C-alpha cells in the first residue's frame, strides 16, 4: 500500500491534483461535482482521478450513481501516516 | 535497405524520448514534492538517459566507434544488441504509460 500511495500520489502526472482531492475528501466526503467546483478542476479530470484512486483502493464511494460521495477507504486510513508524510512534503 | 545500425539508432532515440517524458513528469513532481521518492525516480531517469546518450554517441558521433559499428559489426551481433535496446524501449513505454496518468 505504501508503494502504491507514493507512486499514485507523487510519481504520476496527475499526482499533485490527487493529493488535493484526497485532502479535500479527508476533510469531508463530497461528490465529483462539488470536488470539481471546490478545487477548480475540470469535471472529467476529477472523474478520472477518482477512478484511479478507487482502482488503487485509496477511495471508495457511497454508490448512488450521480450523487455518489467519495471518501478514503479504511485501508488507506491504516496508512494515514504515509499520506500525511506525502502531504507534508508537498508545497 | 535499412541497416541494423539505423534501427539501433531509432530504438535508442525512442528510449531517449520516453525518458525525457518521464523526466518532465518526475522533474515537475520533484519541484512540488521534495521527497526521497520523487528525487530517486528523477535520478534514475537521468542516469538511464545518460546511458542512452552514450550509446547514441558511440553509434553516431564517435569517429572510431561509429565507423566500426556501421561497417564492421556482423548481423548476429546487431540482433543481440537490438534485443537489449528493444526490451528497454518496451519497459520504458510501460513505465511511461502508468506515469502519464
UniProtKB/TrEMBL annotation, chain A:
InterPro entries in the record: ArsR-like_HTH, WH-like_DNA-bd_sf, WH_DNA-bd_sf
Pfam family, any one: HTH_20
PANTHER family per UniProt: TRANSCRIPTIONAL REGULATORY PROTEIN
Protein name: Winged helix-turn-helix domain-containing protein
Species whose genome carries this gene: Haloarcula salinisoli
Automatic annotation (TrEMBL), chain B:
Protein name: Uncharacterized protein
InterPro entries in UniProt: DUF8036
Alphabetized UniProt keyword annotations: Membrane, Transmembrane, Transmembrane helix
Parts of the chain that traverse the membrane: 6-27, 39-60, 80-100
